[in-house]
Amino acid sequence: MGAQLREYKQKISSAQTTKKITKAMELIAASRIQKAMARVRASSPFSRAVTRAVSAVATHTDIDHPLTREPETVTRSAVLLLTSDRGLAGAFNSQVIKEALELAELLRSEGKEVVFYLFGRKAVGYFQFRQMVAEQEWTGEADTPTFETAKEIADALLAAYNLDEAEGGVNEIHVVYNRFVSMMVQEAEQVRLLPLEVVEADQAADNSTSEVYPLYEFEPEPANVLDALLPVYIQSRIFNALLQSAAAKQAATQKAMKSASDNADKLITDYTRLRNNARQAEITQQIAEIVGGADALAS
């Protein structure tokens, strides 16, 4: 009985220690998510402004631009996968990796070769463990992504898009990331960045009814305007996806740590009940031994 009591006490102490850690991590995630959401809100006006400008140029001109032209045949696709650098976030990373792999299978079934670009240590580790090849990797800034990193990713993707297929270029670019919906919901989402789909992009950035644009006169030529706007547009879309992923990760961490704290409370309650039962059984046994010894002496 004494050994059993010690075992229960050790388990209770372990659960209490775990609860302290998970509770602290939950509070840290709750404080970080406010900063992450503030960054998402701060980037929205610029993203909407660039979206309106690109939509205006594409709507009111019939220019044939490389970033808006639909290729006749798509043989090579790039997939940018955004994950976190750390775990302890429930199904945050597994669901976005699953979404990316399903997208890759769909593209392969259409006869396209898939090239992966990875952001986050979890994606890199997943690919390395399974000996899967990635074209390029970025790690270390998943919690607080910077615009410089988004620009670097956008430049790498645009460079691959502008290359010929024989030189390793791609015909289309997809991005897969976790979108922040609410504190309890984070959805894995896939978006085709290039060739540009202005209607889809406008709806994703503005999330409002269709806007009627006035007639524009462009100075300089529309081609020059698109040359300047579209790379900035791609950078803003990637940066927004990075910020959305960072906010969703903090929300997933808070939810996972709260669940872990609740489970620790349940374990503490269960083990305390078992410890009390064991202690009561030990006391009852000792009383029975004393009574039995007294009866033996009396007889």
From TrEMBL:
GO MF annotations in UniProt: ATP binding; proton-transporting ATP synthase activity, rotational mechanism
GO BP terms in the entry: proton motive force-driven plasma membrane ATP synthesis
Membrane-related topology note: Peripheral membrane protein
CDD domains in the record: F1-ATPase_gamma
Location in the cell: Cell membrane; Membrane
Pfam families named among the record's database cross-references: ATP-synt
Complexes and interactors: F-type ATPases have 2 components, CF(1) - the catalytic core - and CF(0) - the membrane proton channel. CF(1) has five subunits: alpha(3), beta(3), gamma(1), delta(1), epsilon(1). CF(0) has three main subunits: a, b and c.
HAMAP family: ATP_synth_gamma_bact (MF_00815)
Protein name: ATP synthase gamma chain
